[in-house]
Amino acid sequence: MSILSFMTPNNPPEPPAFVCEDKEATQDAIAAYGRAERRVQEINVDINRQVAALSAPYEGELATLKERKAALAGGIRAWCEDNKTLILPKGRKTARFLTGEVAWRAGSKTVEVTGEAQGIIALFKKKRLKRFVETKESIKKAAILQEPERIQDIEGIAIRVGEEAFAIRPFDMAADQAA
User: Fold this and answer.
1) Number of separate domains in the chain
2) Looking at the domain assignment, is residue 54 inside a domain?
């Protein structure tokens, strides 16, 4: 069964372009909706097949080119690393060639915690380095939903009732054709 749900508030922002007149018209509209939905799926499958057919002849060449690029990049980097002092102008990080350039860029500093985090946190606290310890507090919304009566007199917090959702679930094609 195909399901397409529309999560909409009870008061849609604009009136619908099409309105069913009675129950029979609504049943017919749901059947038409199901046919349209299935046709969209068929078209998407067809598009994917065509894309696969168009790209298939190039898969081998693309794989070969990717391998070639990786091999060339490895060779270029190896030579440039070995000759870095010769090809880089003093204080520069980019070497220019007639056909292009290579560059070295320092990555950003990062902190790697290699020991046990709790032990390191305890040591930070002992050495009065609490500024390196992050304490995060947040409101437990799930707990509030379990005991909503406890927060009734607290300003700044409220429990909202979920909006009603509307879903259209057309039956499968066999049931659709029987209508």
Assistant:
1) 1
2) yes
